[in-house]
Amino acid sequence: MYHAKLLAFAIAATGALAQTAGTSNATTAQLGPKVPGSNTLYYCSDPSDYKMTLSDVSITPLPPKAGENVTSSISGSLSKPITNGAKHTMEFGKIENSTLAPIGSHTQDLCKNLDMIPDVVIKHFHGEIKQCPIEAGAFNMSKTHAIPEPPKALKGLELPELPKPSGEYYVKASTTLADGSMVACIVADLKAPEGEMMSS
User: Fold this and answer.
1) Which runs of E-coded beta strand occur in 69-151?
2) How many CA atoms lie less than 13 Å away from 87 in the CB half-sphere?
3) 41: burial class by Cβ within 10 Å (0-12, 13-18, 19+)?
4) Which domain holds residue 185?
5) Measured at the alpha carbon of residue 172, what is the angle toward residues 93 and 161, in degrees to the nearest 5?
6) CA gap 64, 147 in Å, rounded
7) Is residue 38 part of a domain?
8) Which residues form the signal peptide (predicted)?
9) Is residue 156 one of the residues assigned to a domain?
C-alpha cells in the first residue's frame, strides 16, 4: 500500500518552487492561514475540515538554490484513506490586487496517475509501489538532497532573449476524495522580483 507521507511530501514539495520567504500578497487574498513551518505555503481555506493535517512543513534553505543541498521536513497525519476516485488538481495563476487570478489548471484521477509524483520523491521511499489505497496515519519525515546546477553544456550558450514575467504568481495543489471531501488544498506563493520568476 501507498503511504500517506508520500502524498504529503509531494504536496509540500510545491513550496520548494517559491522564490522568497516573507510577507506575501497572497496573505491578503481569500486564503486560509499559513501552513506551519518555514515555507511560503498557505491553506486555500480553513483547513479544519481537511482530511490531511500538516503540523510542520519546513524547507531549508528558503529559497532553495541550485548547486546546494535542500532539506525538506514534513509532519502531520491523514485521517481517512485515499481510494479510487480521488482527484488531484494543479492550478497556476497570478496574484492581482490581492486576488488569485487563474491562468490554467489540470485535474487528474489521482489513483490512476500516481506516476505524476516526481521520481526524485519516489526515490526517497526506495521505489514503493505507486497504487491506491493511500493509507491513513501519521507521518514525520525529513529528507536532504542536492539541487543540481544547470548542465555544463548550457553554460556560456547564447540563448534567444525571452520575455520574463514580473509580479507575483501562485501554484495551487488540491486533492479531493471520491465523495468530494477535501484532503488538502495548498497555495505556494511564487514571487518574481525584477522579472525573474524562478531561480531554477
Assistant:
1) 69-78, 87-96, 99-109, 134-135, 137-146
2) 12
3) buried
4) 2-148+178-195
5) 40
6) 8
7) yes
8) 1-18
9) no
The dihedrals phi and psi of 138, each to the nearest 5 degrees, come to: -85, 155
CA distance 80 to 95: 32
Instruction: Say which residues have a Cβ less than 8 Å from residue 146's Cβ, sequence separation at least 6.
Output: 67, 68, 69, 70
Listed residue (77, 76, 139, 132) closest to 109, CA to CA: 132
In a 13 Å sphere around the CA of 121, the CA atoms on its Cβ side amount to 22
User: Which three three-digit cell numbers place residue 52?
Assistant: 490531511
Residue 200 in domain:
no
- pLDDT tens for each residue of the chain, 200 residues long: 445 555 555 555 554 444 333 445 554 456 889 999 998 899 999 999 999 999 999 988 887 887 888 888 889 999 999 899 999 898 998 888 878 889 999 898 988 877 655 554 444 444 454 678 888 888 888 888 887 776 665 556 665 665 656 678 888 999 999 999 999 999 987 665 433 433 33
SS3 state of residue 177 = coil
CATH of the domain at 99: 2.70.220
Q: Tell me which DSSP letter residue 82 carries.
A: B
Cell, residue 120: 526524485
